[in-house]
């Protein structure tokens, strides 16, 4: 884990309230600092993306071929009983296939064509996008090869991530808070003042609130290792760690 101080924007303010209402209280003098915290954690899940494809004379034949190929790939994945898999299907298309003589119109624009002569439908292609998340990640390379071997097309190991990115970001926010307090203390000492209580915290990304009692009780992130699989070609991988960044603006009261 490492932390960085980012954004050196610092403002020392002595704010005096001048509101129109008599009951308005003047704001206390304060120090505003912008700080960041960065943590790096080992990736816990990997995403493999691929396409299953079926061909046939009719749309139904192409769709049935796609389903058969999809089941074939999933049976191959099912051999990895020691690996947690989550298979999700995406978009599906069924397209008509015509000869190369059925060309586009002028300027390369697609023009309506009658399905006769050179533009007669010769067959159909059905395809579906699939994403499978893998944990533990040390199996991802081997599984990528297994998907291709079983008939998947355009197979790629596309992404690495954490199981709970929100919890990881809270850790980064805690680091940012500690960095910001250290900056504010240094500024207060240099100006001959003491740092008072924290008045306000603003999240640059405006996604999560930071609760004081949560700091110091954040969950640990644990990785697990897998056993040997039935794949014929094991592939070792060593992905980069996942970097989580938090940026906060902190406002502290100045005590003279």
Automatic annotation (TrEMBL):
<dbReference type="Pfam" id="PF04402">
    <property type="entry name" value="SIMPL"/>
</dbReference>
<protein>
    <recommendedName>
        <fullName>DUF541 domain-containing protein</fullName>
    </recommendedName>
</protein>
<dbReference type="InterPro" id="IPR007497">
    <property type="entry name" value="SIMPL/DUF541"/>
</dbReference>
<dbReference type="GO" id="GO:0006974">
    <property type="term" value="P:DNA damage response"/>
</dbReference>
<dbReference type="InterPro" id="IPR052022">
    <property type="entry name" value="26kDa_periplasmic_antigen"/>
</dbReference>
